[in-house]
Amino acid sequence: MHLLAAAANSHMLTSRGVHGKVMPDPRGDSQAWLDAMRCLADSGGGVVICGSDAASEWVSANRSALPDSIRTFESADGVHTALMDKYELYKLAAEIGVRAPWMHRISTHTELRAIDSAVTYPCVLKGALGHRARAILGHGTVQVDSRDELMTMADALLENQVAFLLTELVPGDETALEGAVTVRGRGGDYPLEYGRHKLRQWPPDYGVGSLTSSKSVPGTLAMNRRILDHVGYFGVSSCETKRHAGTGELYLIEINVRVPGSFGVAEACGVDGSWRLYATAAGIPLGPQPAQVDGRHSMLPDIEWLAVRARTSSHDQTWGEVLRSWRGTRDFGIVSLRDPRPALSMLGTMVRRRVSRIAREQWMRLRGRPAATTVETTPVARITPERDTRRRSA
């Protein structure tokens, strides 16, 4: 395996059998990615599987410049980027009768002023392309409770020419989020298809699933098929929906067109996801998919401890509830006894950063200066008991 990794994921390069290097952001240095991909093509080519929105967007935009010896799900037809763009996705949903939150798309201050009086709070702000908003705000989706909050976030996005959506806040906590993870073949078949739902995520309510469980989700699977079949999509996708806490109705939230962070559920629940993903991309024939076993969990320990800390400190969950929620965990992300180096590498980086921060703070105190304020890797509003009821209804 050849891995082109972001700096934040450099620990993955220590994995057994992996070769590769740290790459710059493809939006800032497209040529470096073209050179790296052409080098891989010259060495024999192979299958390219994207693990980030930025990578999938780049491959879609540059597919025609890549050699034929490189096989990708992404193509130059624009389908991947259309589903990735939440505005285009919600328009498509409206056209085919799929329920989605109401929305306003904002790309200029003029458009923002035009809908100012129509916006009700709380609402949800989403980057049309979430990864672009995340690079600026630290998150792609966030709850907005007032006009002042909206204007602060909007200014930061619009100054960087990043369009965003204001959408309806669908009542229900994060456990109401369901997902259909699929691989759709060129002929419209589904070599891989399973359901899951979130038990916890980081940041809370609007983040990546830190503890995810396999679950039967027929409504979400049907909604996902309806959309993918309509546009003739080919590749891996993760469709997320939310069930309205009051009415029980299912709302489309988003479709990710790359391997989801919780893909370990595919191994935990017995559907042989990794092989079926690769084989479809490589054009290898597959037999019937093994049956999904519900209630099997996948945990991402590096963010699960953050999610647990937030939920327990806000008294939203007890430690007893946390421990019970871990039952059934079969996959632990990069933590593996068979291949421990990535986890040890990541832990070493975390420890070095912590030691460096403590040393810097001590040095500032010795010099009689206040310690510099630090910013967490994923900026998020702190959850307090007073804010908890509001957040849990998001």
TrEMBL record:
Keyword flag Chloroplast: no
Positions of transmembrane segments = none
Matches recorded under SUPFAM superfamilies: Glutathione synthetase ATP-binding domain-like
Q: Does the record bear ATP-binding in its keywords?
A: yes
InterPro entries, alphabetized: ATP-grasp, CPAse_ATP-bd
Record-annotated ATP-grasp domain positions? 90-282
GO MF entries: ATP binding; metal ion binding
Q: Which UniProt keywords apply?
A: ATP-binding, Nucleotide-binding
Query: What's this protein's name?
Result: ATP-grasp domain-containing protein
Q: Which organism is it from?
A: Pseudonocardia petroleophila
